[in-house]
Amino acid sequence: MTCRLERIWLALLLACAAIPALAGGGGDPLTTAREAIARGDGIAAEVAARRAMAEGAPRSAVAATLGEAYALQGETGKALQWLEPGEFDRSSAESGFRALGRLKTERGEFGEAAEAFDRAIASGARSSGLWVDIARMRYRSGEQHIVGDAIDRALALDPRDPDALSLQAQLVRDSRGLVAALPWFKRAVGIAPDDVALLGDYAATLGEAGRYKSMLRVVRHMFKLQPDNPRIYYLQSVLAARAGQDDLARRLLWRAGDDSAASPAGLVLAGVLEYRTGHPALAVERFDELARLQPDNPLAAKLLARALLASGDLSETVSRLTPIASRDNASPYVLTLLARAYEQLGRRADAAPLLDRAAQAAPSALAAYPFGAAGEDASFRWDATARADAGVEELRRLLGTGQLDAATALARDLDARFPGAVDIENLNGDAALLTGRPAAALQYYAQAGEVRRTTAMIQRVAKALTMLGDAKAADRLLAGSLALDPRNHVLAAQLGRRLAAQGKWAEAATLLGHAVRLGGGRDPRLLSDLARAQIETGAADAALTNAREAYRIQRALPQTTEVLAAALAAKGEGGASVLLAKIDRQRSSTAFAAR
Q: Which of 288, 346, 287, 291 is nearest to 315 (CA)?
């Protein structure tokens, strides 16, 4: 009994001793609050700040801290009540105005955000973190061309600021590619090796660049630091999926939690995993949500249609794919999917012209950046009060529907009213290229490329250079871009085809094979092009394998038939004459003659 009483008294003494620590100790409560904010604990910061007020601290001394505390808790309304008046003392003015600027940026109120940051500067603030906040605001507001100036200022004030280095890495990634961004991420991680968010960005970039071993090392370090971080499991899920371990990938994605699975990238991953493991109905749910979040994303529409077709929902497949298939630049894959849906519905007359279109050569004409059904059906009319994003949607609609004169006029208007907006510069380039002005298009693409270089833009620049008669410059552009983004199968395929046209068969075979391994294994044209290059380089066995696969996927395509015949002949096998006769029949048929 005595021992038990002693244990009870000891527990009470320890509990009493812990009370000051839980309350922030006997030190300055505002210091305790700022330390809590630094570690992201909004609740502890609020408790300490209110204790400071109870002890007599004036409102101006605690307003910034309480505002940040509420912002960390997601209480935006309460945070603004403390931050918007701007009543901060000298020591907290910078943090208060920065917190207000960040909140305004998140709400899309960029003018008010800029005003808050200006007031921070006027208060005497000279921290690198302020200029990082300004850079992020400028990027989100569409002022992408002056983001670099803000980052330069941040790094000039503190060359070792990991936030500034991380943002610089992301800017380099957008403008110069994955590989070019890695040294910036590495430098930032060297300074802040335990920053889990930074490590996650670094790991994701390593993975996209194909450096999986390095990615795994970074992810393992993240696990040691914060084993319950959902991003760790998401990144591991991506690695498992790429290795073909679908069941493991699904379990890891489940452990990553709802937030990771509900992001656009997470929805793609979840949908692909469900589809590959034989659950097309579940894949439909994921891809349907993706299409809702990104209605203008053509990949989302294709993934959803494929899953719908596999799940047997034929009417919905037709509904989703018909607007995409009606475009002149519809891919053979989309046309074939829609045709198969019509066939299963017993509507073979509707399927036949789609299969006929799919059997034609891939369209070579440039098309504007794609737009979704929502954009096609909208009754939007551009006016002087419209926002830049609304103007971009209208411009995409005009370009996509071939209204080039109206598109050119609107493009000029948008360029004058929203200078420096990358999306508008890209679409101005499209308008120029589609109206036969490649030199003007290059100027717009060069401006946009200073901030963001996408695969679509690189393809357009290569097209413009070719139109200007500088094919070698186009080849150098594609080769350099592929070196910076080595897992880009679209660029690998395009450069491989260009080299094949020049008779550089060995180089072409290497690039086309790379494109097939990266995800082009179901593209009959790509497989046919690879088989042709392999025939020319003497790799007859590989050529026959790829030619047979291309023919299996698309028997109605003359290109696949012709290459299979050539591959059989190269191997000395029979059957080539029968295939050549089939090509003659195809070319003499009314459907093909009509072309």
A: 346
Neighbour count for residue 436 (Cβ, 10 Å) = 10
Dist. CA 129–CA 22, nearest whole Å: 30
Name the residue among 459, 457, 461 with its Cα closest to residue 470.
461
Give the span between the Cα atoms of 116 and 100, in whole angstroms. 6
- Closest CA relative to residue 153, chosen from 136, 171, 128: 128
Instruction: Name the nearest CA neighbour of 334 among 368, 375, 362, 312.
Output: 362
Q: What is the CA radius of gyration of the chain?
A: 29
Averaged pLDDT in 10-residue chunks for the chain of 595 residues: 43 38 60 90 92 91 93 92 93 94 92 94 91 92 84 95 95 90 96 95 92 94 93 93 89 87 87 90 89 78 85 86 78 84 90 82 51 37 52 76 82 80 84 89 91 89 94 95 90 95 96 90 89 94 92 82 88 72 60 37
> What is the number of alpha carbons within 13 Å of residue 128 lying toward its C-beta?
17
Report residue 202 as tokens. 């670094």
What's the token pair of residue 480? Answer: 């350099």
Find all residues with CB under 8 Å of 425, minimum gap 6, and list them. Answer: 415, 444, 445, 447, 448
Query: Helices 230-242 & 264-276, crossing angle to 10 degrees?
Result: 40
Query: Which residue reads 């679509």 in tokens?
Result: 456
Look at the alpha carbons of 93, 160, 133, 420 in this order and tell me if their dihedral is positive or negative: positive
Q: Of 396, 380, 372, which Cα lies nearest the Cα of 322?
A: 372
| Nearest CA-CA partner of 535 in 564, 511, 556 | 564
- Among 512, 551, 515, smallest CA distance to 533 is for 512
Tally the residues of the chain: 595
Residues sharing a CB contact under 8 Å with residue 307, sequence separation 6 or more, in sequence order:
271, 275, 280, 283, 284, 287
DSSP track, 371-424: --HHHHH------TT--HHHHHHHHHHHHHTT-HHHHHHHHHHHHHHSTT-HHH
Q: 202 near 218, Cβ under 8 Å? A: yes
| Distance between CA atoms of residues 304 and 283, nearest Å | 8
- Token pair 């790379």 is found at 514
Closest Cα partner for 483 from 372, 469, 475? 475
Of 308, 343, 306, 301, give the one whose Cα is nearest residue 323: 301
Torsion of CA 299, 303, 305, 307, to 10 degrees: 180
DSSP string, 123-153: TT---HHHHHHHHHHHHHHT-GGGHHHHHHH
**CA distance linking residue 202 with residue 185, whole number of Å:** 6
- Which pTM was predicted? 0.79
Neighbours of 501 (CB within 10 A): 10
Which residues, at least 6 apart from 136, have a Cβ–Cβ distance to it below 8 Å? 102, 105, 167
Going by the DSSP 8-state scheme, the letter that residue 468 receives in this structure is T
SS3 531: helix
